[in-house]
Specification:
It is built from seven helices and ten strands. The protein is α/β, with parallel strands linked by helices. 37% of the residues lie in helices and 28% in strands. It has a domain of 133 residues: Rossmann fold. Helix 3 links the parallel strand 5 and strand 6. The strands form three sheets. A six-stranded mixed beta sheet has the order 4-3-2-5-6-7, sandwiched between helices. The chain has a two-stranded parallel ribbon with strand order 1-8. Helix 1 packs across helix 2, helix 4 crosses helix 5 and helix 4 crosses helix 7.
Length: 230
């Protein structure tokens, strides 16, 4: 069903957490006296932060740039590539703030920096809501530094990540079927996402995840629980 490693640590972020980190980044930009004219948000993770930063900084010029690096939850391609580039002239001669949700290896945002610089901005600074110690790239502004590697499940990709995570634990454990409670226990053992964590960050959403997996033909409900679809 998936190509995920069997075990790795995850944490669930909330909208409130990310809004707060966006505000922290905006405050740091103001303190540094950098006055951007346009925010470039990396698709898709940087969109929320990009929109919040425009609001906090009083900007209405928000552009999007897609650099593909992650091909699935906790899975990466060998080299990031620009899939949807900036339009010619969109940042030329302007002060640019480039933003993403997180820098893990730093390869995606580093590739984005090169792309923006090639379009001759007047100035370019970078920001991420979170920064992992594994990143070779250090943004100008960081909302929060994460000292230990962890996969962050953001609220804007909760369904996407959870479908992969649930699929991974089912694939690892065998055919099943498994009750919802058993699946949550498996998520806790493999990824640290137990009932308490889910209830605090995304209450009541596990049935929604399983129903969506059923709709996509990834699992089926047998009456005794959930099992991979034939």
């Amino acid at each position: 069903m998936t190509g995920l490693p069997q075990e790795f640590d995850c944490t669930l972020a909330t909208w409130e957490d990310m809004y707060g980190l966006s505000r922290r980044v905006a405050d740091a930009v103001k303190t540094a006296d950098f006055d951007p004219e346009v925010v470039v948000a990396l698709a898709r993770g940087g969109w929320f932060a990009g929109r919040c930063l425009c609001d906090f900084l009083g900007l209405d010029d928000l552009a999007s740039l897609k650099v593909e690096h992650y091909v699935g939850t906790a899975q990466t391609a060998e080299e990031p590539r620009v899939r949807y580039p900036l339009a010619e002239g969109s940042v030329t001669g302007k002060r640019v703030l480039l933003v993403d949700d997180i820098a893990d290896s730093g390869a995606s945002i580093s590739r984005a920096v090169g792309h923006v610089e090639a379009r001759d901005p007047a100035a370019l600074e970078t920001a991420t809501l979170q920064l992992l110690s594994t990143s070779a790239f250090e943004p100008t502004y960081v909302g929060k530094q994460l000292e230990e590697w962890v996969w962050v499940v953001y609220p804007w990709n909760f369904m996407e990540d959870m479908i992969e995570l649930v699929g991974g634990v089912i694939e690892s454990a065998g055919a099943g079927p498994y009750t919802q409670q058993e699946l949550v226990e498996m998520l806790s053992e493999s990824h640290g996402l137990g009932a308490a964590e889910l209830a605090a960050a995304q209450p009541g959403r596990m049935p929604e995840v399983l129903e969506e997996m059923d709709r996509r033909g990834l699992v089926t409900h047998t009456g005794a629980g959930w099992a991979p679809a034939d």
